[in-house]
Specification:
mainly alpha; about 0% strand; globular
Length: about 190
């Protein structure tokens, strides 16, 4: 068993270095490092800058600070990507149980619940996500999608507007607002 894991430290170190050097140098040196700075820059960014800032925010929000919790997150997301919602929910439930202050764990479990058609638990997890991170524009967007699922275009539109105020260049948010604008605001005469 010891031989099986003898290279584990070397593999982890090599992976860490690969990730470090995979991040574009410009993003590491010129982007604000803290959440408030990234959010302020995102609100004022042009579309090209917004992509880099979005990646930085997702990386910041996606790190729990614990390798074990990050592994549960990865396993949950991988299972969701494979379409195995049951396994995704199991991993993400373990994550939310062990790291209840980690907003991304709640958000990802909400996505898994939504995919499984479990809308009540999905809404509850989105609410928890937004209590922990009220600036998570993806969670706000997901809440808007839930309102659309419940045939509530007014609240969906308001959620999308709130998300757009944080991330003005989010393509899915823009598309959702365009889709609902006539329904909510009516047609010009």
């Amino acid at each position: 068993m010891v031989a099986k894991f003898s290279n584990l430290k070397a593999i982890v170190a090599a992976t860490s270095l690969t990730v470090l050097f995979s991040v574009p140098l410009q993003a590491r040196s010129e982007s604000p490092a803290d959440e408030a700075g990234l959010l302020a820059a995102l609100a004022q960014a042009d579309p090209d800058e917004a992509i880099s800032l979005d990646r930085s925010l997702q990386a910041l929000w996606g790190s729990s600070g614990s390798p074990a919790m990050d592994l549960l997150l990865k396993r949950g997301k991988d299972a969701l990507d494979r379409g195995d919602t049951r396994i995704a929910i199991e991993h993400l439930t373990a994550l939310t149980d062990h790291a209840p202050g980690f907003a991304t764990g709640w958000y990802e479990r909400a996505r898994a619940y939504f995919t499984a058609g479990l809308f009540g638990p999905a809404v509850a997890d989105l609410e928890q996500t937004l209590m922990l991170n009220p600036n998570d524009y993806n969670a706000i967007f997901a809440l808007g999608a839930m309102f659309e699922q419940f045939n509530d275009p007014q609240n969906a539109y308001e959620a999308y507007k709130r998300a757009q105020a944080i991330h003005p260049h989010h393509e899915e948010i823009t598309n959702a607002l365009d889709r609902l604008k006539t329904t909510v605001e009516g047609r010009e005469l």
